[in-house]
Amino acid sequence: MAGHSKWANIKHRKGAQDAKRAKIFTRLIREITVSARQGGGDIEANPRLRAAVTSARGSNMPNDTIEKAIKRGTGDIDGMIIEEVNYEGYGPGGVAVLVECQTDNKNRTTAEVRHVFTKFNGNLGANGCVSYLFERKGMIVLDGERCDLESAMDAAIEAGAEDVEEESGFISVTTAMEDLHNVSNALADAGLPVTSAELVQVPSTLIKIEEKDALTLMRLITNMDDLDDISRVSANFEMDDELMARIEEKL
């Protein structure tokens, strides 16, 4: 889990940069639309949609924009057809990489994903080659500079969270998929600084990445994550804090 939460925190720090490029709203709108199409427009009855709307509100997305995205998903208003596509493959060091996409042009997205895998010593694999190594969970990120681990852990456990970790100034709280909304609300009600809450893919097993492969792997992941159609990149690696710090300086 360490590798996953470290990457979640790197993504969290990248969030400000992504927002400047207006990518974060585009991704959230697509996630809301796809979630509503697959599970219906009732936020309370659709955990994935509820998580997407929570993230959108946390990013100060206007309610009108959220409502329109939901209606596009349910077919109540016309809009671009967004297709959800997942890609699976391997990165340097044999690390499993799961790429979740939402696209209006599958051929374009496939070509872009394949290019990134190839450029950074990875391989695009067949469907099912690595997805069995991941499980969808809720991930809540707290600002570790505005709360302490003990308070966060007490509140998270009381609310039904599965795991709590502190890394690089952030506290990550893992929940069952269906518990994300309730745990996030409980932490906020307890006065804890919730900065994001989303559904993620958590690896069941981890590979310890060697230094010779670490920088290329992280470049593969960050370049993949920067593609317009990518909603999430997950990988089953871990590395020690010292190596992670050196790699982050080079990204």
What attributes characterize this protein structure?
251 residues; alpha+beta; Arc Repressor Mutant, subunit A; Alpha-Beta Plaits; four-stranded antiparallel sheet; 48% helix
SSE inventory with pairings:
Layout: H1 2-20, H2 23-39, H3 47-58, H4 63-74, E1 83-90, E2 96-103, H5 106-119, E3 123-124, E4 134-143, H6 149-159, E5 163-167, E6 170-176, H7 180-189, E7 194-203, E8 207-208, H8 211-225, E9 230-235, E10 237-238, H9 241-250
Parallel strand pairs: 8-10
Antiparallel strand pairs: 1-2, 1-3, 2-9, 4-6, 4-7, 5-6
* Assigned CATH class of the largest domain: Alpha Beta
Level of helix content?
40-55%
Overall SS class:
alpha+beta
N-to-C SSE string, H for helix and E for strand: HHHHEEHEEHEEHEEHEEH
Q: How many structural domains?
A: 3
Beta-strand residue fraction: 15-25%
Order of strands side by side in the largest beta sheet? 3-1-2-9
Number of helices: 9
Calculate Rg over CA atoms.
Answer: 18 Å
For this structure, what is the CATH homologous superfamily of the largest domain? YebC, transcriptional regulation domain
Quick structural gist:
The protein is α+β, with helices and mostly antiparallel strands and 251 residues long. 48% of the residues lie in helices and 24% in strands. It has helices spanning 2-20, 23-39, 47-58, 63-74, 106-119, 149-159, 180-189, 211-225, 241-250, and strands at 83-90, 96-103, 123-124, 134-143, 163-167, 170-176, 194-203, 207-208, 230-235, 237-238.
